[in-house]
Write a structure and sequence with these properties.
- The protein is mainly α.
- It contains 15 helices and two strands.
- The chain has helices spanning 3-22, 37-62, 70-97, 131-149, 159-182, 187-191, 199-217, 230-249, 257-283, 290-304, 313-335, 345-363, 384-414, 421-426, 428-433, and strands spanning 100-101, 105-106.
- Strands 1-2 form a two-stranded antiparallel sheet.
- Helix 2 packs antiparallel against helix 3, helix 3 crosses helix 4 and helix 8 (230-249) packs antiparallel against helix 9 (257-283).
- It starts with a helix and ends with a helix.
């Protein structure tokens, strides 16, 4: 990062320091007798689980790219942990979960610089854990979402431009979606949308943003590559699968039976998807591969995310199988187009998220989660929920794709998104960071 580009964010950091010194510090008080020690302990653990997913994603993506781009690809995930954390503390949490403004965004002053969060009243949908713990748990979702997009423009984006883009994405895409979907006054929440742990907020948004990014940044100079480390991909998959238990089971916001259900459906959907991927490959004459197994497992995890706390374990197997086949076919289709989604983020996360979201409206059962389920799914003779999810899919897709394309254009006007052809050929590890494996 050259000195001129570094000057503006450095000034912002100084401003943040000054504001943090001037603002009064919150005092921790127990203002709610309903806080549960067991729920708090589990959610502390789940928060750590979700955070480990981002380094897991770094290994997952890093192992897939060319050797000359491993460090840059992995750093794009790691830097999200730093940048989005700062942004979340300053205004992100307020935008996502602050006082609702029209059901589409939160008031940025509600929790500005985490004002009133330490001693605040617990979030109404997570009443047995401290508000600060809820805020930190949600932070981990905000961190991994822009990191997921990086697989689409791997090996060709400038690091400084990437940082600006993820800040804009978090504020203008992620936070409004989180507010609309998970805030009690959000328009999608009130519309009856069921998204247990982020099918729309995380995976559809990341996948559709990836598609917009791949189209906007166009093809790489060298479109063929050999994965640097398949073992990195396997390690990353293991960390993602492990962390996903916090992602989904943690979204029950307590050490309870619903969390157990979410953990069980997460396990079975991922297992079914991983096995289906290599079987589907074998039917087409391909060898069962480690890469395919890992990709299939992640697709299953993606697809079960919106449904984890609303469907039965038996139905989660179907979610895993169907999502794996559809995503596999989409990867094959994408490879025959001019769209250079480097690591197939859209076919896996975008399409996987959409399939899981729609299947949630097929298999949702109020007997599993009567407190939060707004209706039974299509399988049980009710059509309303499926229609709601179908309309939401179209609306969210248009919002994310169009919004991301606009943000890419704005970023590109401020600082060019693409590295030069010479920098791309040299590799981003050296050209962007001066490092190599």
């Amino acid at each position: 990062m050259n000195k001129k580009l570094a000057l503006f964010p450095f000034i912002l950091l100084i401003v943040i320091v000054i504001i943090s010194v001037v603002l009064p510090s919150g005092i921790v008080t127990n203002n709610n007798a309903e806080i549960s020690g067991a729920d708090t302990a589990w959610m502390l653990t789940a928060t750590a689980f979700v955070l480990i997913m981002t380094p897991g994603l770094a290994f997952f993506y890093g192992g897939m790219v060319n050797k000359k781009n491993v460090i840059s690809t992995m750093l794009q995930s790691f830097i999200s942990m730093a940048v989005i954390t700062i942004l979340w503390v300053v205004v992100g949490f307020s935008f996502a979960f602050g006082e609702s403004v029209g059901g589409v965004i939160g008031n940025p002053s509600t929790f500005f610089m985490m004002k009133g969060v330490l001693n605040g009243k617990p979030w109404q949908l997570a009443p047995t854990i401290p508000l600060m713990l809820f805020a930190l748990y949600q932070l981990k979702f905000a961190i991994i979402t822009p990191a997921l997009i990086t697989g689409a423009f791997a090996e060709r984006i400038k690091f400084t431009s990437y940082i600006l883009f993820i800040c804009l994405f978090c504020i203008f895409i992620y936070c409004p979606l989180a507010h609309a979907t998970w805030h009690p006054n959000g328009i999608l929440f009130k519309y009856g949308v069921l998204d247990f742990a982020g099918g729309t907020v995380v995976h559809m948004s990341a996948g559709l943003a990836a598609l917009a990014s791949a189209i906007y940044l166009k093809r790489r100079t060298e479109t063929t590559h050999t994965p640097a480390r398949i073992t990195y991909v396997m390690l990353g998959t293991g960390l993602l699968w492990f962390g996903w238990f916090g992602f989904n089971a943690g979204s029950a916001f307590g050490a309870n039976a619903l969390g157990v259900t979410a953990l069980a459906t997460t396990t079975t959907a991922s297992a079914a998807a991983a096995f289906t991927w290599i079987i589907f490959d074998a039917l087409r004459g391909r060898k069962p591969s480690a890469m395919g197994t890992c990709i299939g497992a992640v697709v299953g995890l993606v697809a079960i995310t919106p449904a984890a706390g609303f469907i039965s374990i038996a139905h989660s197997l179907t979610v895993g199988i169907v999502s794996s086949i559809v995503s596999n076919m989409m990867v094959e289709w994408r490879s025959k187009t001019t769209i250079d989604d480097t690591l197939d983020v859209f076919p896996c996360h975008g399409v996987g998220g959409i399939v899981g979201f729609l299947l949630t409206a097929v298999f949702a059962n109020q007997s599993i989660n009567s407190a939060n389920t707004t209706g039974n799914g299509l399988l049980f003779g009710e059509t309303h929920l499926f229609i709601v999810h179908l309309i939401t899919t179209i609306g969210v897709s248009a919002f994310v794709f169009g919004g991301t394309f606009l943000l890419l254009k704005i970023t590109d006007l401020i600082t060019p998104l693409r590295v030069t052809e010479d920098e791309e050929k040299l590799g981003l590890d050296i050209s962007q960071h001066g490092e190599k494996l």
